[in-house]
Amino acid sequence: MKKTYFLLALSLCLQYTIPAQTASSGNLKTSFSVQELSKTFWNTGDGVPYKSVPGANLGITSFEQMDKNRTALLSDASNEIRIMNSATGKTSIKFSVMPTPRDFAYDNGNFYVLNENQVNVYDENGKNVKSMPFPNTLVGVGRIARYNNTTWLLLPSGNSVELETGTAKKGWITASGNFVAAVLKNTNAYAVSITTTDGKYDTKLFTTDKKTAGVYIVGSTTDRVVLDVQTYISESPIQVERHLVSIRLSSGVMGELVSDVKVPDCYYVLSDKEFNLNKDGSVTHMITAPDGLHLFSLTETELTKAKSYPSSVTAVKYHFNDHLLQMNEQK
Amino acid sequence: MNIFRLIQQKGFGIRSAMVLVIVLCSALLPAQSITRTQIHYNAIPFTTYSFTATSSNIQSNSSCPSAGGNVTTPSWVVVGHNAPGMAYCWGGFSSLSSFTTGLTNGKSAGDNDCTTNGDCCETCALGVDCSGFVSHAWGLTTKYSTTTLPNISTAYASASQVKQGDIFNLSGSHVRLVDTNYASGTFLLMESSAVDWKVSYRSYTAAQLTSYTPRWYVNADSGAPVCNHYYSTLPYSNSFETAWDMDSCNSGAQRSPDKYWKSNIGGTSPAGNDFWHRDDYTGTDWTSPSSGMYTPSASTGSYSARFHNDPSPAGSTGQMDLYLNLSTPGSKTIKFDYLHNEASPSPFSFNVLLSTDGGVTFPTNLLTITSAQVSTWTTQTVTTSATSATCVLRFSVTDKGSVDVGVDNLNVSLTTVTGITSYSEDEFTLFPNPSDGTLLNGTVPETDRNTLDVHIYNMLGSEVISRQVSLDGKNFSLRMDNQLAAGVYLFVAGSGDKQFRKKIIVK
After folding, report:
1. Domains of chain A as residue ranges with CATH
2. Which of B88, B144, B210 has the CB atom closest to A239's CB atom?
3. At what angle do helices B36-48 and B130-137 cross, to 10 degrees?
4. Chains A–B, number of C-beta pairs less than 8 Å apart
5. C-alpha closest to that of A183 among A166, A203, A211, A168
6. How close is the nearest chain A Cα to the Cα of B300, in Å?
7. Options 3.30.420.40, 3.40.630.30, 2.60.40.3080, 3.40.50.300; which CATH number does B421-506 get?
8. For A13-17, what is the mean pLDDT?
9. Cβ neighbours of residue A109 closer than 8 Å, sequence gap 6 or more
10. Considering only alpha carbons, which residue of chain A is nearest residue B194?
11. What is the pLDDT of residues A256-269, one digit of tens each?
12. pLDDT digits (tens, 9 = 90+) for B180-189
């Protein structure tokens, strides 16, 4: 009888302590295979600008792949959009944008550049064709997206607001039209929720080995959700380890973690957008290193065949916060 | 010289000297407690600060001999109106008032020359640096630095613990003030930095805050905040998706959708269910919060503003006030979605009232919904031509029923005329500005007309000049013939389907 009670208690205990749906990154059969696309040098004529200012080191804050051959870089060091050859990494066209840009989206031949309180639209020749201010209640907006000819502000709260209509939605809109949100649940878990274009809603809990510091949406396709998962190495002062993970998605229902790759600890400048999930499921990753700006393509590959990041970015442990201007402030 | 020896030389015993030292040190340390909400309210005006600059406030590499450095004004500062945010200045500790006063004395609005000692601020330039901003937010009367802020703050064990009013500090380099610690691990922070060259909001991931230490001010507590009112400029919109704020004038619960709102109890009920909250509220203001909930819970997004009235005393009233600066001339459109799916509750009334005197009186009823039952989310639209900078929009509902009242997707904006393109201040020029009141010249983007209809309004919204001027290509001149007294005016001009607005100053 005692044994029965014990098993019953154990069963109840497990039921309430272990979430029904959890997934961690153990036992994966695939990973991201990394291929370097280009490298661009700092502060050269056809390279990218770099500037150290009080509070931050600035360079390229965001990037967009315009097509197979062209990548656009948004410079908050020089307040410019620079269009470069994706293979050579050399800048062919550049034009000025309103000072202190935060992020941009390229759509239908136009650049939608996010500033503190407005979005400025530029054509490929750099002509400012439109300005769209937004309410001062939306503060700290650092990301923007375009979907189906509409402009979306991706809010720090994890929600999205359509600029043209003011419509607000839970989650960040992604290129597939799905809205994805993430919330930390306890020390080693996070919940991801998705609302698909046909209104289907799903949520699932995932676990991390170390304490979860933050989970940030990279994007989603019809069959994948990709996240930037950060876990604490030190909680104070902050030191984190970053992983890019992808989750299987099937008819709007999330499955298990499919791939996981550790992101190199190399950050030469402050950037708001470092990853872009492409329609074909590959991820473009921008790494800023002391020797230049690197673009990598990450594709899901069998675990045994996956190629990792080159030592040029993994061997360099560099964070811009450790190399800020020393201000020697007076009290 | 050793301070104890110095004091003893002045005739004090060692015990007396120690007491004196303790007293002296206490005087140097901040002792007054401050609430986190008050820290937030101290910080907000630095992010919304607006100022008018003249050409003397914009300098380029100008020498500041008394401080031994050079001054260059940040490039975002222009002659005329500048907003929002106080300009960055290394070493700066300007208050809102000293910044405003300093402008009239011809000092630079900010300084982005960080090659010298950083001591031009206050001498030749105005603004705050990162720690100057935090010092003001924490209510300190002297400026602390990123290396001395740790002396009056305590490190958290984990960044995940930070709350509003805390800081992320990187000694010797930078400090940021916490606004919101979001559930995803995103931190919404306020900072004075050279990223924006002013005080602004930015959001960060944990990785972006590498090496920063989360800290809380030792004198921060949770006492009652000072009552504040903030008026939002247009456009204003809110679909009530984010968590509501604590009301600084009516402590006890999250009763304000954001800082521009106040919850105002109607008075027909002593307490209880006549407060508005976000629809998912579960606190003690409401009893049986799941009772009376309407569906769907929002017209857009997931949440709405909800007047909960089941159960409640008969005929109780709840009022929710939005503080608006409607000083821009012209018609304003107020739109929101409304839901109350119940037939014949009694009593019932829903009104949108307008005050132009900061909420002292509400003489204008903009909208009364007479049909008690509105079973689906329905858009309501009203307009007003009020031009007061201290308007209050009141949503007032009186109800005795079993289904609550919902409001969502609120938008207040200048009424737009279809086909009209408005240009921002940067897209056309007016000069000289400030003007001596005789002549105003301007250049506008290409239009298909050869005339421009010009209207100039004073800050009370009254039209003081209305004239048609000729366009010579893109250029025009307006003779004002000293018609205007010294002050700030709004210049509004239209040509065909284009409209231009800009503030002008007459000296």
Report:
1. 24-319 (2.120.10)
2. B210
3. 130
4. 229
5. A203
6. 6
7. 2.60.40.3080
8. 34
9. A123, A124
10. A54
11. 999 999 999 999 99
12. 999 899 999 9
